[in-house]
Amino acid sequence: MTQTPLVEMRDMNIRFGGNHAVNNVSVDLNPGEVVGLLGHNGAGKSTLIKMLSGAYRPDSGEIRINGEKVEIHNPRDARAHNIETIYQTLALADNLDAASNLFLGRELVTGSGFVDDDAMEAETRKIMARLNPNFKNFAAPVSSLSGGQRQSVAIARAVYFNAKILIMDEPTAALGPHETQMVADLIQQLKAEGLGIFLIDHDVHQVMKLCDRAAVMKNGKLVGVVNIADVTDDDLLGMIILGKNPITGEIVTD
Known about the structure:
With 254 residues, the protein is of the alpha/beta class. It has two domains: 1-82 and 164-254, 3-Layer(aba) Sandwich (Rossmann fold); 97-161, no CATH class. The protein is built from eight helices and ten strands. It has helices spanning 45-53, 75-80, 98-102, 117-131, 147-160, 177-192, 204-210, 233-242; strands at residues 7-16, 19-29, 34-38, 60-65, 68-70, 83-86, 165-169, 196-200, 213-218, 221-227. The strands form two sheets. It has a six-stranded mixed beta sheet, sandwiched between helices. Helix 4 (117-131) packs across helix 5 and helix 5 (147-160) runs parallel beside helix 6 (177-192). It is globular. The relative contact order is 0.17.
């Protein structure tokens, strides 16, 4: 029996002035899968995914979630379909602790209408125990946390609010080896729980390590989608630089 993808993006197109930023691109994502999105700056990978996150509205194309066609006009629509985005900047409030960041804008309140700090910390401890048991700095402002711990907070926020589809924008950029491994472990945990993850990255080695498939774009077009098990680092580099699909031999031209 064929599995219904979590996400199907079909024939997506968007122009900015005379620039065809995304040109007839189709990708999909299955439950418990990580799909890497690769390409040079300006290749169109971030623009493609911003149509899924609600940041941009496509000129044409179709998005399906669990097989059902949906309209995503803004980030609120995306969240209604259990799509959460973790941008490279993380969008955390540096002066607040983990619990306050996790519930930022969606605070728990007591029966009398006051913010319930104790309940928010208890919920934060529960989600962190599941995702990152080594996390202990619950009282510290997130500005004092390491890069990997900050990623943990951002990921916990998405998962707590029932994300099924996670978009991660270069989650290991500027992290050291230990922090990078922490994020890799988190991604494996989310995969095991059945989430689907789109991972935008420039690092071929990270994509080879973390992803099940890779979709490579060049000049707004899709070079191809390949199974990581079937390709090498050099194959992916050839797709990025030359626009050559290692499976079909086809070359994307400008």
